[in-house]
Amino acid sequence: AFTRQADRWEAELRIEPRTEPLLAEHRFNDRPLLPAVAMIEIFSEALRAIIPGTSVPRIHDFVIRHSLHF
Predict the structure, then answer these.
(1) Is the separation of the CB atoms in 32 and 70 below 8 Å?
(2) From CA 63, how far away is CA 15, in angstroms rounded?
(3) Residues 6 or more apart whose Cβ sits within 8 Å of residue 62
């Protein structure tokens, strides 16, 4: 779900790490982590929700500074 506050947008995405099939095969030290491609897709969906009709044809210079562990 996406909501707009006065000067920013907020997104909420609920993922259950114990039952999400995508996370079953993505683990580090037995902790589930969100794959980078899933992060990119979430950001792309957020952009399309905020600016309807927008597409994300290409992403470049994408840097992951920290992994998203659950």
Answers:
(1) yes
(2) 23
(3) 36, 40
